[in-house]
Amino acid sequence: MNYQARSFIAWASAASLVLAIVSGIFLAFPFRPEIPLISTVGIEGVVPFGDFMRSFHFYTGQLAFLTLVVHIVESLLSASYEKKTWLSWTLLVASFPVTVFALFSGYVIRGDEIGASAGHIAESLVLEIPFFGSVLNHIILAVTEEGIHRTYMAHICFSFLLLIALMAWHFRLTRLKLEDLAFWAVIAMLPTMFYPPILRPVNPDLSVLGPWFFVGIQELLRHFPPFYAGIIFPAIPILALVFFKKFPRACAMVLIAWHSLYLILSVIGFSR
Predict the structure, then answer these.
(1) Structural domains in the chain plus CATH codes
(2) Of 74, 44, 46, nearest to 58 (Cα)?
(3) Which pLDDT score is estimated for 31?
(4) Which pLDDT tens digit goes with each residue over 45-70?
(5) pTM of the model as a whole
(6) DSSP secondary-structure letter at 225?
(7) Angstrom distances, CA of residue 113 to CA of 3, 110, 198, 207
(8) How far apart are CA 12 and CA 146, in angstroms?
(9) Cα separation of 157 and 151, whole Å?
(10) What angle do CA 38, 42, 43 make, to 5 degrees?
(11) Taking the alpha carbons of 119, 121, 127, 133 in that order, is the dihedral positive or negative?
């Protein structure tokens, strides 16, 4: 295969993650998880540069997620996965759902309409997992009983887990350049200045659209039981990636079909 993976994308994801964590540390000091929405509004209205930093944190997280997706796609197209051990490839694949949860939990802990609805839907889906669903929910969500406290701690822990994995793998090969951090900081500042994320009043409702990457799942939940729509269906691409080294052609077809269907579901969801 002639396609060559670019280190630029891998370092883009690394730089975006570092910027998201640094800005997240700034936001953690004034944030109070017992009153998430009021606290977030206070950060935007009272803390100096709070509104800018919250938007910057939001968009660097989005960039980290999107560039990670591109990095994984490039690994598949360039067949660089063949050079990786099963352990390194599995860890790279595992970073994807961890990043998704870190991004998703960021929506939940805002405490607004989107976050409240996403949190309750996610909790109901996690409880559908056989055997250890209730334990997992108790660890990372439990929004009905504990509010956003556990989700907030999980958001922090998962973010730093990603940073540790990044340092253990990429940073041992070469250092992250300051110009890369500066470049992606400027990229994140552009939407921050012109299109800051908007909070919505709390009124949990299943008709409210969740995070943009969750809309396809939300649409599928309208037609299928939660276990199949929220557990089995999202697990398909993860399993296809894990076994890509062994069955590349079959897994590639599964991934193409899954993402095509998810795109259609997302378009339907957004059009409602």
Answers:
(1) 7-201 (1.20.810.10), 209-272 (no CATH)
(2) 44
(3) 95
(4) 899 999 999 999 999 999 999 998 98
(5) 0.88
(6) -
(7) 43, 9, 11, 11
(8) 36
(9) 10
(10) 120
(11) negative
| Residue 14 to residue 37: CA distance in whole angstroms | 29
CA distances from residue 104 to 39, 75, 159, 226 in whole angstroms, order as listed: 19, 24, 12, 18
Instruction: Identify whether the C-beta of residue 126 lies closer than 8 Å to the C-beta of residue 133.
Output: yes
Whole-angstrom Cα Rg for the chain = 19
The position carrying tokens 């099963």 is: 86
Q: Dihedral angle at the C-alpha atoms of 163, 164, 167, 169, nearest 10 degrees?
A: -110
CB-neighbour burial class of residue 24 (10 A; exposed 0-12, middle 13-18, buried 19+): buried
Overall average pLDDT of the 167-172 stretch: 67
Q: Scan for tokens 């809309």, then name that residue.
A: 215
Q: Which two tokens stand for residue 53?
A: 């930093």
% of the chain beyond a pLDDT of 90: 56
